[in-house]
Design goal:
The complex is a heterodimer of chains A (313) and B (447).
Chain A lengths: L3 H9 L1 E5 L3 H7 L6 H18 L8 H17 L11 E5 L2 E8 L2 E8 L2 E5 L9 H6 L41 E8 L11 H24 L5 E13 L3 E11 L10 E10 L3 E3 L3 E3 L2 E4 L2 E3 L3 H12 L4
Helix pairs in contact in A: 1-6, 2-7, 3-4
Chain B lengths: L1 H8 L35 H16 L4 H8 L6 E4 L8 H9 L1 E5 L50 H18 L10 H4 L1 H16 L4 H4 L2 E4 L3 E11 L9 E10 L3 E5 L30 E2 L17 E8 L6 H6 L5 H24 L12 E8 L3 E9 L16 E5 L3 E2 L3 E3 L2 E3 L3 H11 L7
The chains are: A alpha+beta (313), B alpha+beta (447).
């Protein structure tokens, strides 16, 4: 009906900030990372995912999207030669998330398979300063009168309020803090995939769900403003466009519309490359578009890497 | 030359130039008549050999490797599909005869420089190669008093904790639904193997620069097509003709690591470490079945990929080949056969496809050996294999004067742990982990 992120913001009592937070941008600008050499490798990796990894001429999105993601994660993981604390991370696939909360007397719930989750032993330090958190008190949440904010949500009779990521991991798990969620839109048919706006809304809801469950596990079920905000990152892609998001949960007091709000930084619609030409395009015996990757943007990978390294560097 | 032209056009009966023109050698090298050879299209053995010769010349003269592969696999005929993971009895003997492989039990002896010595847990100092970055300090451990030029040490305790964490996450901590029927391997051992390899490779990449430039594939395809031996066509419109026996391997390893530089050879190219079994029966007795489809040669990515050499493959045995099934059917000795046949067939296909990507084929035999490694596991038991490809010339023509044999070193399957109970891994076996680490740290001498 209207952009999904605005609705998700109201549902999760969140204030939106465009662009990535300065902490993450600072990691990107760190010259010790050796990003120049990595560019060449990332180009190879993109070519491998889009062109080379299967014997068919043009691999389909269902294949190349996960392959691209695995290759990018492999490059990021190989940085643990330089930063040994990166080994304190573990990827978990097919995690189920369940979180419940109340918003102005409407009971809301996030449930389902939340893509691929990366957990770490240490939590990410809060990204926004105390002043910024307090400043969100003045921010007024956008309402959609006369449309009810729960439009397009499925109404379900819930008999048990399930509330923990402890539901997907048992106690004593050595990597208790959710770090980053990855969403891969890899359906072949365009209508089966989420549009970028809807993908961002989905990322926000799941990041919020994970953060809320973690906060309730750490600080108990009472709604209150958190002393230690919980930060969860999220990256969504369809194989070419990337959406980056950093979500900071400042409060679990979600019933009222006033008070401290949560914060989310979104960097949307980052292209990793323009085109991947599998077969050279020939018009009138002249090669107009040679085979290969064109329009490669190294910045998108730098942001990916910065989000991966956030908390460990 | 005009004189020569006149000489050629001389009709019989003219006697002008009955004596040869002195000082005029009849244009050196240029024949008077076209060469007298057998025809191309006749139904005769000579014509068949000329056609084969022309095919060989076409493949030799192909400009690019893709063109060579396309010509090599152009003609489609019924061929035997060889499955690396098979329940056939004594399949490893058959596979060794198809691929001319010698099986040497145990791992190949490696030089002392390549083997990372393991220090006792609790050591404090760090020693290693000079350019080791400072961030490595907490990860490396050392035996006191080591010389400055010693190879870097590996902290087994930390790697053991990584492995245990991966195992516990997949089997204990993460709440998963019940496994689907007969899909137990996809539920726990599959994800465990993926986690294990990715985290181990990442943590060892600091020590092995080859790993730092490697490419990790999940469920890639590896295919190879070759001829070996001859047979007479039994029925059909081609009945009675002598045809090469064609084989095709289509393999799906669980995980594979490809690298841009080749692994060093283990033994010289012409070494003879044993005998290849000779089996007098037709391959269909194994049982092996014929099918006609595309002749693919593929290492996991196309020729354009810079990581064109193989490092290590990881295979997961499916539920059909579980140990319990063999024990229940009283075929305990076939358990090891399953691991061995998987190792030999998969590694032969991979190394041979790598060799073909470099332009070698059965008429142009390899000039350097191709080495790759594999780990075959069912989640708990691990078997390690190392394969050296010395020859691709396996067709009936080329094998006659070929003294070379391919070599495969393999171990028996050993358990990595005994049991996982209540968040604890009991009976962890350090040797298996050490062998895995040695495999991952394998690299060319100059790196």
């Amino acid at each position: 009906v209207f952009p999904g992120v605005r609705q998700a913001q109201w549902l999760t009592k969140t204030k939106l900030v465009e662009g990535l937070p300065p902490a993450v941008l600072g990691i990107m600008d760190n010259p010790a990372l050796g990003l120049q050499e990595l560019e060449e490798r990332v180009k190879h990796v993109v070519s491998h995912a889009r062109l080379w990894h299967s014997a068919e001429v043009a691999p389909r999105r269902e294949q190349y999207c996960p392959v691209l993601f695995e290759n990018l994660i492999h490059i990021c993981r190989l940085m643990s030669g330089k930063y040994p604390s990166l080994t304190k991370r573990m990827l978990a696939r097919n995690c189920r998330i369940a979180a419940t909360w109340e918003r102005e007397s409407i009971l809301l719930q996030v449930r389902g398979l939340s893509g691929i989750l990366m957990n770490s032993m240490t939590p990410i330090p809060p990204v926004a300063s105390k002043e910024e958190i307090l400043a969100t008190k003045e921010h007024v949440l956008e309402t959609f009168y006369p449309i009810a904010p729960t439009i397009d949500l499925q109404e379900v009779n819930v008999y048990k309020e399930l509330n923990d990521t402890g539901q997907s991991f048992r106690d004593g798990y050595p990597y208790p803090h959710p770090h980053t969620l990855f969403f891969l839109e890899s359906a072949n048919v365009r209508t089966d995939r989420f549009r970028p706006e809807q993908l961002r809304a989905k990322m926000l809801m799941f990041a919020f769900g994970n953060a809320l469950a973690k906060a309730k596990a750490l600080h108990g079920d009472d709604p209150k403003v958190l002393e230690q905000p919980v930060v969860v990152q999220s990256i969504g892609t369809d194989g070419q466009l990337f959406q980056f998001m950093v979500f900071q949960l400042n409060t679990t007091d979600l019933v009222s519309n006033d008070g401290v709000k949560n914060l989310v930084w979104i960097d949307s619609d980052q292209n990793l490359y323009e085109r991947a030409q599998c077969v050279p395009e020939v018009k009138k015996r002249v090669v107009t578009k040679p085979a290969g990757i064109s329009g490669f943007q190294p910045d998108t990978f730098k942001k990916f890497l910065a989000l991966y390294l956030h908390g460990a560097v | 030359m005009a004189a020569l032209g006149a000489w050629r056009l001389l009709r019989p009966g003219r006697r002008w130039f009955s004596e040869t023109v002195p000082g005029d050698p009849s244009a050196p090298g240029s024949p008077l008549y076209p060469p007298v050879v057998a025809s191309f299209t006749a139904k005769s053995k000579a014509a068949k050999s000329r056609r084969l010769q022309r095919f060989n010349e076409r493949v030799h003269a192909a400009a690019t490797v893709e063109e060579k592969l396309r010509l090599y696999g152009k003609l489609q005929r019924p061929k035997y599909t060889v499955y690396p993971q098979t329940f056939a009895l004594n399949a490893d003997r058959w596979y060794r005869s198809f691929t001319r492989t010698v099986l040497v039990p145990g791992m190949p002896p490696r030089g002392a420089a390549a083997k990372p010595p393991v220090a006792a847990v609790g050591a404090t100092l760090e020693a290693g190669r000079a350019p080791e970055p400072g961030a490595e300090a907490p990860a490396a451990a050392v035996a006191p008093g080591a010389a400055a030029g010693a190879a870097p040490y590996v902290d087994i305790g930390e790697l053991r904790s990584l492995v245990c964490d991966a195992l516990l996450q997949e089997s204990f901590y993460q709440n998963k639904k019940r496994p689907f029927l007969y899909r137990d391997q996809d539920h726990t051992p599959g994800p465990f193997l993926t986690q294990l390899v990715s985290t181990l490779a990442a943590s060892l990449s600091g020590r092995n620069p080859l790993l730092a430039a490697s490419s990790l594939d999940l469920s890639p395809e590896v295919n190879y097509y070759w001829h070996h031996g001859e047979e007479v066509v039994v029925h059909g419109h081609r009945k009675g003709r002598v045809d090469p026996v064609r084989f095709q391997i289509d393999d799906n390893p669980h995980l594979q690591i490809r690298v841009p530089k080749q692994l060093p050879e283990v033994v010289p190219l012409e070494s003879d470490l044993g005998d290849v079994p000779v089996i007098d029966h037709k391959p269909s007795k194994l049982p092996l079945f014929k099918k006609q489809y595309e002749n693919k040669v593929f290492i996991g990515s196309k020729v354009a990929d810079p990581c064109c050499y193989g490092h290590t493959q990881f295979h997961l045995l499916p539920d059909k080949l579980k140990r319990e099934r063999f024990i229940r059917d009283r075929l305990e000795d076939q358990i090891e056969v399953v691991y061995r046949s998987n190792g030999i067939a998969s590694l032969f296909a991979w190394t041979a496809a790598q060799a073909m990507y470099q332009g070698f084929w059965s008429e142009a035999d390899v000039t350097r050996p191709f080495v790759s490694q594999a780990v075959v596991t069912d989640g708990k038991y691990f078997a390690f294999f190392c394969y050296q490809l010395n020859t691709l010339a396996l067709t009936a023509e080329t094998i006659k004067n070929n003294p070379r044999k391919n070599i495969c070193w393999g171990t028996d399957s050993k358990p990595l742990y005994d049991v996982v109970e209540d968040g604890n891994v009991k009976g962890f076996n350090d040797e298996v982990l050490l062998q895995l680490v040695r495999f991952l740290l394998n690299r060319p001498k100059e790196l």
